[in-house]
């Protein structure tokens, strides 16, 4: 079966611009989480969606937002980009609660802000 | 909130054993373990739920001590394919729901 698909794979944006990243979870998975990965900081939790509802969010500024559609696909938006937003953004999907099923990660979107 | 992993890095020769630890200051519902190879997505290894259970995956096993709020990942008779960065994820409760937060990772290098 198809895995978690993230698009685009690479992005280069200028400071001040905004960007939208997309994540298509495994068919049937209703939980989608987003993480920011940077060297030395590991995986930082951004937010989690389940059945179109944001269940939890991490400690990121309001410039970071997301949403989930009825088909479980999710998008993440970052407005007014800063140099420090350069990172690998990973999306992970789970059948239901990750507690019992674990996450399947996508390959990520590498965002570079110049 | 972020769990603390130790050591940060470890270098082994093929066939040697290693232990990676993961500690949290918050009450945990579960602990996840993932491995990420360079340039690839993290891959799920196993979950441990409350109850101090121990699980195994090939020659990789883990334990979860609920009282100490810590988990350990055991790699025995390491193989070259075990190289990568290992992340523990701890499920904590915040704002009325649970979320999975990850440690900074432990880089494991297995040499021939």
Shape designation of chain A: globular
Q: Identify low-pLDDT runs of chain A.
A: none
| Terminus-to-terminus distance of chain B | 37 Å
Q: Main beta sheet of chain A: strand number and arrangement?
A: 7 strands, mixed
Q: H/E series of chain A, N to C?
A: EEEEEEEEEHEE
Radius of gyration of chain A (CA) equals 13 Å
Average pLDDT score of chain B: 89
Tell the overall outline of chain B.
globular
Number of strands of chain B: 11
What does this structure look like?
- The complex is a heterodimer of chains A (114) and B (112).
- Chain A is mainly beta and 114 residues long.
- Chain A contains one helix and eleven strands.
- The radius of gyration of chain A is 13 Å and the shape is globular.
- The termini of chain A are far apart.
- The relative contact order of chain A is 0.32.
- The mean pLDDT of chain B is 89.
- Chain B starts with a strand and ends with a strand.
- Chain B is built from no helices and eleven strands.
- Chain B is mostly beta strands.
- Classes of the chains: A mainly beta (114), B mainly beta (112).
- The interface between A and B is medium-sized, with 28 and 27 residues.
Provide tags for this entry.
heterodimer; A: 114 residues; mainly beta; seven-stranded mixed β-sheet; four-stranded antiparallel β-sheet; 11 strands; globular; B: 112 residues; six-stranded mixed β-sheet
Give a nutshell description of this structure:
The complex is a heterodimer of chains A (114) and B (112). Chain A is mainly β and 114 residues long.
